[in-house]
Amino acid sequence: MQIADHAAYLEEVSVTACPKLLPALIKALEAQGHPILSPSDRAGLHPLLIPLASCPPPPGGPDAAAPAGSESVVLGLLRWADPGRHKGMALPLVSMSRGARGVRLVARSVDEYLHRLLAEEDAAAGSGGPTPLADAASASDAAGVAELYSRGAVERLGLGGAKFNLYLIKKVGMFPDVAEALSLGHLARGDATSAMVAGEW
Which domain of life does this protein belong to (predicted)? Predict the structure, then answer.
């Protein structure tokens, strides 16, 4: 599967601008070992979903609406039904099991999801550890990836380990699984108001 296929599909079929860092994200997904899917491989998927890769279910398990026996989900971009009314708005990244009744938000944009992948890898690798995702993404767009995330940023801010979700919130964006974890943490401490605020973010 050629990365150019996704860019061409977005621009020619979906009449939507291709996210600048989409090739870098696809390279990172390949480096994770996820099979890259053709953008036209849409059987059993939401009509506005543009497939990128086949991945394990996201944190929190598969969607409740997923068919029994689903072991992987399709990660893809959800294009806007009327691109002309959403010019300049990023395409959200979603996951879906084939045949399911709905999609699940993974990230608000390609940039936020790639930033998260790079930061997670860097935080796990520690100082001087291997970073195959960053290497693969940088091979596609070194300047764009360097602008998005610089090695050691999590450590420099002192937000590694148990504080990593704070890094995501402050520097990357809000993710549904992070909001859920924050809400559950507040509930565990008996703070229902903060749990509701985190859940609605």
Answer: Eukaryota
pLDDT of residue 1: 54
Q: Are 178 and 163 in contact (CB under 8 A)?
A: no
Output the CA angle 27-33-37, nearest 5 degrees. 65
The residue length of the chain stands at: 201
Fill in the DSSP letter of residue 18.
P
Q: Which helix (H) or strand (E) holds 106?
A: strand 104-107
Of 35, 65, 68, give the one whose Cα is nearest residue 53.
35
- Geometric angle at alpha carbon 8, from 6 and 9, rounded to 5°: 65
| Residue-wise pLDDT tens digits, 33-54 | 999 999 999 999 999 999 999 9
In sequence order, the 6+-apart residues with CB closer than 8 A to the CB of 113 are 25, 93, 106, 107
7, amino acid identity: A
- How big, in percent rounded to 5, are the helix, strand and coil portions of the chain? 50, 10, 40
Task: Give the burial class of 81: count Cβ atoms within 10 A of its Cβ; 0-12 exposed, 13-18 middle, 19 or more buried.
Answer: exposed
Mean pLDDT confidence for 84-113: 92
Query: How large a percentage of the chain has pLDDT more than 90?
Result: 65
Among residues 42, 36, 37, the alpha carbon closest in space to that of 13 is found at 42
